[in-house]
Write a structure and sequence with these properties.
Layout (H helix, E strand, L loop, with lengths): L2 H5 L11 H14 L7 E7 L2 E7 L5 H5 L4 H16 L4 E6 L1
Length: about 100
């Protein structure tokens, strides 16, 4: 078992809900944009599940959304898969 696997052991009461999804979203967004310091991910837990709000610089919105929303959809798919690892259902909102 590697050190990374220890962080995700079941029953770990100190684990932040959706931490994997949040980190994946931040990492992917920082790799896409021109201004990685402007990337901010906010988490909100409600009855519908976990909502991650992605904020980027105004000039980078087009890069994050992509043509016909394809990049945004790909980001949502990857984050949803990452959240499944934590047993959480995460939704991504890209806000300006």
């Amino acid at each position: 078992m590697s050190d990374v696997d220890v962080e995700y052991e079941e029953g770990d009461a100190n684990r932040v809900e959706g931490a994997t999804a949040s980190r994946v979203l931040e990492y992917v967004a920082r790799q896409i944009v021109d201004d990685p310091d402007a990337v901010v991910v906010e988490r909100e837990q409600d009855r519908r599940g976990l909502t991650l709000r992605l904020h980027v610089a105004p000039d980078d919105m087009g890069k994050v959304i992509g043509k016909r929303g394809r990049v945004a959809q790909a980001i949502r798919t990857v984050v949803r898969a990452a959240s499944a690892r934590d047993g959480v259902e995460a939704n991504v909102d890209i806000v300006d």
